[in-house]
Each structure stands twice: as C-alpha cells, then as structure tokens.
Design brief:
The complex is a heterodimer of chains A (164) and B (426). Chain A is mainly α and 164 residues long. Helix content of chain A is 79%, strand content 3%. Chain B is an all-alpha fold and 426 residues long. Chain B is built from 21 helices and no strands. Chain B is globular. The chains are: A mainly alpha (164), B mainly alpha (426). Chains A and B meet through helix 1, helix 2, helix 3 and helix 5 of A and helix 1, helix 2, helix 3, helix 4 and helix 13 of B.
Chain lengths: 164, 426
C-alpha cells in the first residue's frame, strides 16, 4: 500500500512537470517563431504544426489535471440545494457514470490511434501522426481512473473525512 | 424507448453535476451510435482541435491573466486609476468600475477580479463614505464587467467557434474586437452615471489632483503600464496577429512578474501554470467533444429543423431577439460562460443568421447576457465568489447587486435593438 501511494505521488509529480514544461515550451517556442519570422525571415516550416499539437497536449493534460483537482466545468445546481446525504449518493453515481463514459471513449480512441499506427503517416518533421494522437486515449484513460477513484472515495469514506 | 431512456439519463447526469464534457461526450456517442457511425469518430473530432491555429491564444492569454492576478498588478492598476480619476465627483466608484473592466478583460471573468481587485476596492469604497450595500453590489457586479473588451477570453472563444462553423457573414477577429468596444463602454458609463447619481448626497467631497502622486503611480507600474496599450495597438493597428500578441504578452508578463518585480516565486509559478492550464484544459476538452456533438447535430439537420419550427411561430427578427435574450439569461444563470459558448453558439448561430442577425451582433448579445448571468441566482458565479470573499450571505449580495443588474439589463436591451452600436464601426 505504501509503495502504491509513493508510486501515485511520483506519477503526479511527473504529470505536473510535463504540464508546466510543455506550457513553458509553448510560450518560448511561439515567441522564437515570431522573432525568427520578423527579424531573420526564417522559421521552422513545421513550427506552426508543433504549436497546434502542443496546444492539444496541454489542453488534454490540463483536462487530466482538472480531474485530479476536481475542477471540471459542471452545472453546479443540485449540490447547493440537497442534503449532504443525498449529495453523496449523487456524487457516487455521477462520478461512476462519468468514468464509464470516459472509459468507452478511451477504448474507441485507442482503436483509432492503433489504426493510425498501421497507416504510419507523418505529422511534421519525422514525427508520426499516431504519436501526436496518443494523448487522446491516454488522457481519457487517466480521467476514467480518476473518476472511478472519486466515486469509490465518496462511497467508502464518509464526507467528514473527505472534507478534513 | 432505449433512446428516450438514454436521453433522460444524460439530462439527469448533467443536472446531477457530472462534468459537462462527459455529458456532451455521452450525448455525441449516443448520437453517433444510433446513426451507425463508428465511435472512433470521437477521437478524430477531438484531434480536430489541432485544425484551429487561433486556439493557441487561449492557453497563452489564460496564463497571462493568472500570472497578472497572482502578482501585485491589481494594486498598481488601482493606484493609477485612483490617482488619475479621483478628482472627479463620485470618482472612486468610477475608478472601481474602470479598473475592474480593464482587469477583467485581461484575466477573463473567472471571479479573480472580485478576489484580487474587489478585495482592495471594497474597503476603499467604505472608507470613501459609500454605503455598504452599494459597495458590495458594485464590487460583485464589476467581477464580470469588461467581458466585451479585448483580449477577453470569452470574446476570443466566440470568434474561434464561429469561424469553425462557417455560417453567415465571415468576419475577422479584429472586427469582433472593435464591435465590443462601444457596447462595453456603454455598460461602464451607465454604471458610472448611476453610481454617481445614487450617491450624489454622500459623495460630494472631491479629492484634488496631485501631480506628484499621479506620476509616482505611473512609475510604480512602469513595466505593466505599456501592456494594455501594446495589446490594443497590436489588435487595432493590425500589424500583429492575435496569436502573436498572445505569445508576446505571455512572455513579457512572465519576465516582468517573475524576474523584474519578483512577485511570483518559482513555486507559485508552478501553481499559476497548473491552475491556468486546468482552466484551459477544462474548456478545451469541452470544445473538443462539442465539435463532435455539433457535427452530429448538423448531420441530423437539427439546426435546420429547429429553424423551420421556430419560423412557423415567430416571423419577426425582433421577437426572436427578445426570446433569445430571455433564453440566454436563463442559460447564463445555470451554465458557465465558456461551456455556454462552446455548447450553445453552434446551435443558435444558424438560427440567428436565418433571422438576419449578423454573427458579430449575436456574439456581443450573447456575451452581454452571460455577463448578467454571473449575477443571477441560483448559481451566478459572482454572487458565490463575493459571498465567500466578503463573508456575507448570498441572499444579501443578490439584493445589493439587483440595481446594477437592472442597469445592465437596460443596456442589454439597447445593445440588442440598436445594432448600429455594435456593427457601426466594423
């Protein structure tokens, strides 16, 4: 159990590191593209593609992160108006259903990426398309696990423990 | 039967507070499943996020805004507006409104204006002799003021979404930014006039203009002061693209706040990165799955059918606009502005264009409604943030905000029925 906790902690650190460094790369790279284009009349032809792929990766990593910190955009109507007991039941079901939905989407995205892997198209430079898409099933898989965990947490721990 | 149960299930899921991206994902997967389309299409649609070059402005401006609100930029902005505008009668309230509008345009209406700027303005207003009720209402209202000014994220997002749908007259981002100026200014001015008028008996002492202090406030903010001018000049001057401006603004603010003012240490910087990208990710994933959902709707000819249906009951553009406003106000009360933009715009844009409404006009009306939605119960976000920040019950805040909301509603009507205010300058 202790090993598992450590592993999860390490993975979380890697996730944060990836998100922060990709964002800083995005900022630095887009600035350098502008400078090169305007002052040296050059620039990488694939620069534009790289930026768009970076945005996709940062977006989906951010979405994973939102699952970790429970910050996804939702209609926050019910939680303000029902008792704590009902809140908990609703939380368990809605998180579990969300996990199922993400799971299904993950499975079909994975099939799609595997297909792309067989076509072996190139996205830019010599980067194959499938490797830029792999983040889609990956982030959905992480979201599935996170919502499952949320659902179990509300099911097996009482609210008071969670809040503290 | 299965379809009906599934649809009810999805609606219940949305109401029970499940993440909206999952709700839309479920709806589009159901739609494609029933139409016999392979569900791998979901990944293809999410990957379409990479087809939009403008999208990079979203993470960059979000990061810039979060970084600005984490530094003491709000103090310095307040310093400038205070020193330069306080000589006017009722100046402090006007200062509060203008400073908030500028701050919100840069940080997006994520409630950060109330937390960062409102927290400074509220005690200042009380000290200046304004009643508590008025001050609380003003600070709550100003949390979403400035949405119509560039580079506000909702404005940019509206542009991105409409460019993807390609319905109606095409327009440039620059035109959209020009269109928001006058309606946004009318809002700020109308609120200023009311603030002055309703406090005319209380606030008659003017402060004198102090050249030395005014100069000092500019020197204090000498690194941030050029930023709004650069952004506005870049956008309206037309010599930089929006994504270039976003990249330069993000790098510039990064250098200024982290290395020159040194107000954001590395540890905090990591927090700024993850929090701003959490928000970006939350929006982008909804945008991604909504691309799928919109495609399904268009394939099923839902917008066309909806238009035909509505056309049989309403034939006047003006009736349609009125109903549109009522619907958007209700929507704004329960839905986050970004989610509303991404989910609703693809559906109503074809309707509005069918009734002869210019897409830009629709965008300004839409955002003005959402801005008011921040102030309407049951879940207007500004009400909750102000209640949390100032420790007052939400019902009291709602009552205090009411007069401000009524003025904004009035302005909304003007914007809606006098399109020349929006379209006259583009």
């Amino acid at each position: 159990m202790k090993f598992l906790t450590l592993l999860v902690q390490a993975l979380k650190k890697i996730e944060t590191f990836l998100l922060v460094s990709l964002l800083l790369i995005l900022i630095g790279f887009s600035l350098s593209q502008i400078l090169m284009r305007n002052f040296m009349d050059t620039g990488f032809i694939w620069g534009e593609y790289l930026i768009r792929i970076l945005v996709l990766w940062i977006g989906l990593l951010g979405a994973m992160y939102a699952g970790r910190t429970n910050k996804h955009i939702r209609i926050d109507l019910v939680t303000h108006y029902v008792s704590e007991k009902w809140q908990r039941y609703i939380e368990i079901t809605s998180n579990f259903t969300t996990a199922v939905i993400c799971g299904i989407a993950c499975w079909y995205s994975l099939l799609f990426v595997l297909e792309e892997y067989e076509y072996a198209d190139v996205a830019f430079a010599s980067v194959p398309v499938w490797s830029t898409q792999i983040i889609i099933p990956f982030s959905l898989a992480v979201l599935t696990l996170r919502f499952l965990a949320q659902s179990f947490k509300s099911a097996f721990y009482s609210h008071s423990i969670l809040k503290s | 039967m299965f379809t009906l149960i599934a649809i009810i299930g999805i609606v219940l899921l949305a109401l029970s507070g499940a993440p909206l991206f999952a709700v839309i994902l479920a709806a589009s997967m159901l739609g494609f499943f029933l139409a016999g389309v392979d569900l791998s299409v979901i990944a293809i649609e999410i990957y379409r996020l990479t087809d939009t070059p403008l999208l990079v402005a979203l993470p960059l401006f979000t990061f810039t805004g979060y970084l600005l609100s984490e530094s003491k930029a709000s103090h310095r902005l307040l310093g400038i507006t205070e020193q330069w505008m306080n000589w006017m009668p009722g100046g402090l309230a006007v200062v509060a409104l203008f400073a908030s509008a500028i701050f919100t345009a840069f940080t997006g209406a994520s409630g950060v204006t109330i937390v960062a700027l409102g927290a400074l303005l509220y005690p200042a207003l009380i000290e200046g002799g304004y009643p508590k009720k008025f001050s609380l209402g003003l600070v709550t209202t100003s949390g979403s003021l400035g949405l119509l000014f560039p580079p506000s994220l909702p404005l940019i997002l509206f542009g991105i979404i409409t460019q993807q749908i390609e319905v109606g007259e095409s327009f440039t981002m620059e035109q959209l930014f020009i269109a928001g100026l006058v309606p946004g200014l009318i809002m700020v001015v109308a609120l200023s006039v009311w603030s002055y008028w309703s406090n005319r008996k209380i606030v008659n002492h003017k402060k004198s203009f102090n050249w030395k202090l005014a100069k000092q406030s500019l020197i204090d903010a000498k690194w941030e002061f050029p930023l709004p001018f650069f952004v506005l000049l870049g956008i309206y001057g037309g010599f930089l693209t929006l994504t270039e401006i976003a990249a330069i603004a993000a790098s510039y603010v990064f250098i200024v706040e982290v290395f020159i003012y040194r107000e954001v240490p590395i540890k905090k910087l990591i927090k700024v990165c993850t929090e701003s990208m959490t928000m970006t990710g939350g929006i982008l994933i909804i945008l991604g799955v909504s691309l799928a959902f919109t495609n399904f709707l268009v394939d099923a000819e839902v917008p066309n059918n909806l238009f035909e249906q509505i056309k049989t009951h309403i034939d006047s553009k003006y009736t349609f606009l009125l109903l549109l406003n009522i619907m958007l106000l209700l929507l704004g009360a329960i839905l986050d502005i970004y989610a509303a933009l991404v989910i609703v715009v693809p559906i109503i844009l074809p309707l509005a264009v069918g009734f002869g409404i210019h897409p830009i006009h629709l965008g300004i009306i839409f955002l003005a409604n959402m801005q008011i939605g921040y102030l309407t119960p049951p879940i207007g976000m500004n009400l909750f943030i102000a209640s949390y920040r100032f420790g007052e019950p939400i019902t009291k805040i709602y009552k205090d905000t009411l007069p401000f909301m009524l003025i904004l509603l009035l302005v909304l009507l003007v914007i809606t029925y006098v399109p020349v205010l929006t379209l006259g300058f583009i």
